[in-house]
């Protein structure tokens, strides 16, 4: 049975988080299709990873059989996280926009799992082709043609980090204008916000079914 790696990063719990709500929809549909499958779950907001330090970074460029005891200890977490990614048949990531970009907790995860010559590189890697669904929620509107289009550094960054660095097959689900119901200045955008939210849940469920059918074939 397939394995799903599910990462949530929102600082808000449950339904208070647009990204968590949509990843929950994906996961619910995924588990309905794969009741005996495996889910590796990390809540990076509740249990943040340490930032990559110099010793752990250096160890990534040294063959494991040549690691010093200090490098071996420093690399252990990177090896664990990369192993989780390598075991995954599909990846689900909740990535809300904070100050125009991804949460620092997600950046820390990426810094650990991007390992040159293993998960990353010009040649075939251990993660090449793995499908990844990213729920990139945002409080305002940053789509093409909007005044703040140039401020959008979530999908633009993650496409490079996940697709170009890790060679994942990346698709985005984007609920936007999520602050409309709580921000009086956005009152006239509530209808658009609700429509975006509904479409995001629909897209998440659809993509989960699509991937389920792929693995069942």
TrEMBL record:
* Required cofactor(s): FMN
Q: Per the database record, which ranges form the Flavodoxin-like fold domain?
A: 4-173
Q: Does the keyword Flavoprotein apply?
A: yes
A single Gene Ontology molecular function, please?
A: electron transfer activity
Q: What is its EC number?
A: 1.6.5.-, 1.7.1.17
UniProt key word Cell inner membrane: no
Paste the cofactor note.
Binds 1 FMN per subunit.
Record key words, sorted: Flavoprotein, FMN, NAD, Oxidoreductase
Instruction: Give the source's domain of life in one word.
Output: Bacteria
Instruction: Specify which residues bind FMN according to the UniProt entry for this protein.
Output: 10, 17-19, 97-100, 137-140
Alphabetized Pfam families for the sequence: Flavodoxin_2 (PF02525)
Q: What class of enzyme is it?
A: oxidoreductase
Q: Which reaction does it catalyse?
A: N,N-dimethyl-1,4-phenylenediamine + anthranilate + 2 NAD(+) = 2-(4-dimethylaminophenyl)diazenylbenzoate + 2 NADH + 2 H(+); 2 a quinone + NADH + H(+) = 2 a 1,4-benzosemiquinone + NAD(+)
Its biological purpose is as follows:
Quinone reductase that provides resistance to thiol-specific stress caused by electrophilic quinones. Also exhibits azoreductase activity. Catalyzes the reductive cleavage of the azo bond in aromatic azo compounds to the corresponding amines.
Subunit details:
Homodimer.
Tell me its family: Belongs to the azoreductase type 1 family.
Protein name (Swiss-Prot/TrEMBL): FMN dependent NADH:quinone oxidoreductase
Record gene name: azoR
């Amino acid at each position: 049975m397939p394995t799903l790696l599910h990462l949530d990063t929102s600082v808000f719990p449950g339904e208070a988080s647009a990204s968590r709500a949509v990843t929950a929809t994906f996961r619910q549909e995924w588990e309905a299709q794969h009741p005996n499958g495996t889910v590796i779950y990390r809540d990076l907001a509740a249990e943040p990873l340490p930032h990559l330090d110099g010793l752990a970074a250096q160890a990534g460029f040294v063959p494991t059989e040549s690691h010093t005891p200090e490098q071996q200890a420093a690399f252990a977490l990177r090896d664990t996280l990369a192993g989780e990614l390598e075991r995954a048949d599909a990846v689900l990531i909740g990535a809300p926009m904070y100050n125009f970009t991804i949460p620092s907790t997600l950046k820390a995860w990426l810094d650990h799992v991007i390992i040159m010559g293993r998960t990353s590189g010009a040649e075939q890697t251990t993660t090449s082709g793995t499908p990844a669904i990213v729920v990139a929620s945002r409080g305002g509107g940053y789509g093409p043609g909007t005044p703040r289009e140039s401020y959008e550094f979530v999908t633009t960054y993650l496409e490079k980090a996940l697709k170009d660095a890790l060679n994942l097959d990346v698709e985005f689900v984007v609920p936007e204008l999520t602050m409309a119901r709580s921000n009086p200045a956005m009152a006239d955008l509530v209808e658009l916000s609700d429509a975006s939210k509904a479409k995001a849940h629909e897209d998440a469920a659809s993509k989960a079914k699509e991937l389920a059918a792929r693995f069942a074939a």
